Amino acid sequence: MRIFILGEDLSGSIASPEVKLNLGGDFIKESTATTFLRQRGYGWLLEVEDDDPEDNKPLLEELDIDLKDIYYKIRCVLMPMPSLGFNRQVVRDNPDFWGPLAVVLFFSMISLYGQFRVVSWIITIWIFGSLTIFLLARVLGGEVAYGQVLGVIGYSLLPLIVIAPLLLVVGSFDVVSTLIKLFGVFWAAYSAASLLVGEEFKTKKPLLIYPIFLLYIYFLSLYTGV
């Protein structure tokens, strides 16, 4: 490089600065290969993308599982009395899939008695039984979605799970066992019907309550396996 200042010839060279990378607080000299790639316009090959926060979500959040919401819905189903102050409509208005599925699977597990095929059978009854209730509700003029029916029917199996240990204890007493079974079925049917059978059905409520009651009787009959 040559520069003229006031008639004087000043010549010299400017050395290229060393390029250093900061890794972990220590500066290291950039390698020859890295410099070569940058000079040729291929520096983008060396770029490292920052981690996307969306990729670091917890597994439960990725699967859209809200344990607090599921726990609240379980309490709403097990304690269906309006005087307790629970907002029970959340079971119907905010349906989820994992909670009812967990309840149905748990009911299937306590119904096994060595017959593993009962799991798929109970899940099938849950899906198609809910579909039958859904179609009947729509025919009767109810504004309800299939996902809502699926969630309510699934969660309302909880009373049958609660009475299962009692049936093991009083199994030898036929009268007591029958009373407990009727209580469990009425409990489950009332929890489901009180959520699904709204005022829009008016005088047609028995047409929907009766098949719900029969569905839970059938669930209870599967308790000892099929």
From TrEMBL:
Subcellular location: Golgi apparatus membrane; Golgi apparatus, cis-Golgi network membrane
Any one biological process term the GO annotation gives: endoplasmic reticulum to Golgi vesicle-mediated transport
Membrane topology: Multi-pass membrane protein
Keywords: Golgi apparatus, Membrane, Transmembrane, Transmembrane helix
Pfam families reported in the protein's UniProt record: Yip1
Membrane-spanning residues: 97-114, 120-140, 152-173, 179-198, 207-225
A GO CC term assigned to this protein in UniProt: trans-Golgi network
Record-linked InterPro entries: Yip1/4-like, Yip1_dom
Residues of the signal peptide: none
Predominant place of localization: Golgi
Protein family: Belongs to the YIP1 family.
Record's protein name: Protein YIPF
Organism of provenance: Phascolarctos cinereus (Koala)
Gene name of the encoded protein: YIPF4
